[in-house]
Amino acid sequence: xxxxxxxxxxxxxxxxxxxxxxxxxxxxxxxxxxxxxxxxxxxxxxxxxxxxxxxxxxxxxxxxxxxxxxxxxxxxxxxxxxxxxxxxxxxxxxxxxxxxxxxxxxxxxxxxxxxxxxxxxxxxxxxxxxxxxxxxxxxxxxxxxxxxxxxxxxxxxxxxxxxxxxxxxxxxxxxxxxxxxxxxxxxxxxxxxxxxxxxxxxxxxxxxxxxxxxx
Length: 215
Known about the structure:
By secondary structure, this protein is α/β, with parallel strands linked by helices.
């Protein structure tokens, strides 16, 4: 008797998390692009976000344009303790790790690029280290948003810190507003077709920096 080949189950996110730091001084910084992504999704899907003490974050739930119920989270624990907030939500709603899609900034990707993956290591990102530790798994999808490397600093830690905590230029902001629209599309595609299929579209597109029109 031949065994039936079982297709791998579709990975459909139920909780979408954007990583960042609270406090106004971190607003609009490169490191907070995960927060900006959740704000963009919340606006597009008309899901209100509000501070939730139990979840140690800004939280909202509603119905996505495709698929069913969806939850959005911006941990307010500071980046290196993001996992506490994520775990509070997954424990409360009994969500498996693979149903969590985490969105965050990536220096190793150029500005205008996004990279969707099914799983992987933290790659030196403190927010992801915390998420992996608290979910006790690396097997959850993540969408990385390229913020580019700092200019003029090869392996300079202080240069990297000031880069991620710095703000985008006017030209970069034009690109990032297009990137955030694309991120909303990618997340919708993940809900509709599963993360694996969405990867083809989300990993192939690159949004270019416009020529300096205001120069």
